[in-house]
Amino acid sequence: MSERTGSAPGRVNLIGEHTDYNGGFALPLAIPARTTAHVRTREDGTVVAASTAPGTEPARFAVDSSPGDVTGWAAYVAGVFWALRDAGHDVPGADVRVDSTVPSGAGLSSSHALECAVAVTLNDLHGLGLDRTTLALLVQRAENHYVGAPTGAMDQMASLYGQDGHVILFDARAMTAEPVPCDLAAAGLSLVVVDTKVHHEHTDGGYGARRATCEAAAALLGVQTLREVQDEPVGDVVSKLDDDVMVRRVRHVLTENARVLDTVALLRAGRPGEIGPLLTASHASMRDDYEITVAEVDTAVEAALSAGALGARMTGGGFGGSVIALTAAADEARVSDAVRAAFDQHGYAPPSVFTVRPAAGAGIEESTQ
Ligand code: GAF
């Protein structure tokens, strides 16, 4: 059969932000919202991509397009074809139909869900035999070089390796993804997501500037990535740097890696209800040291905590997007209502508030295998 349907989920990052491109640790989970890609081979060297998402136009481009040829939503599709072909896989053209329940621009990695859905589907359709880590790296290449966003590999690893009932401990230096049990419902907990509706693209300057500062700090410290100084006391590391902004960026990365490992230890000990303070500390570090939060995001975190959330933080690359709040299941409605009320009081557009649980990663629909 020359057609396949595959799908890949969005993600929430439980903790570990802006650590991946520093060779560090992150702890994402795949969420139930998914993007589905139906791919049917064409013989004319063309890709025709269409999406059911509002505001998207169908796109038609050569299967061997180059970075810059395709822009807008279809660049994520074109980028995957480009990365596969650039790696020597002679994939032919195709009709690609996309349907998604991952909210776009919400910081829940809708772009990676799209790329991963196309990647797993092409991998299966053409029998490429690529493992998930290789696919994640190819999708990262598509994102970095075709779309032009200098992102790390966390989102792809979460989308490809996600598992029902588990968060994924991603070690960006080793490129490993280890499932860690996280059955929130069994522990009487809820994970509330607040999409603040403040949208931001990682092709804008803020993300790249943070990455550049970390890379400059690593160079000054004489290491490849900040991960190599992770085992030294944070105070010792930052005392070797003069620039205050650089000190704060490095402090965020090193303390955030430690918070990820502390969170994993609590989850492995069967104490998920105790991770809240680590989530909240992560938020403070993103707000004060990494400076990637915005007013709506901080408002959502403060309102959730005031209403009794066990912990709350922005999730994802920042400058907008979504906040997560861990609550006792019984407090979920009160926390959600408090966030909505705070947005109303501040005159912000109403947020979208919903819950997520750790869900399955990317896969192929059986009827088309
Ligand atoms: C975005 C990026 F795509 C990830 O690679 C990661 O850096 C994240 O921001 C911040 O943790 O989602």
UniProtKB/TrEMBL annotation:
Keywords: ATP-binding, Carbohydrate metabolism, Cytoplasm, Galactose metabolism, Kinase, Magnesium, Metal-binding, Nucleotide-binding, Transferase. Pfam families: GalKase_gal_bdg (PF10509), GHMP_kinases_C (PF08544), GHMP_kinases_N (PF00288). GO terms for cellular component: cytosol. It comes from the Bacteria. Transmembrane segments: none annotated. Residues 76-163 form the GHMP kinase N-terminal domain. InterPro entries: Galactokinase (IPR000705), Galactokinase_CS (IPR019741), GalKase_N (IPR019539), GHMP_kinase_C_dom (IPR013750), GHMP_kinase_C_sf (IPR036554), GHMP_kinase_N_dom (IPR006204), Mevalonate/galactokinase (IPR006206), Ribosomal_Su5_D2-typ_SF (IPR020568). Residues 5-40 form the Galactokinase N-terminal domain. GO terms for molecular function: ATP binding; galactokinase activity; metal ion binding. Residues 265-344 form the GHMP kinase C-terminal domain. PROSITE patterns: GALACTOKINASE. Its EC number is 2.7.1.6. GO terms for biological process: galactose metabolic process. Belongs to the GHMP kinase family. GalK subfamily. This is Galactokinase. The gene is galK.
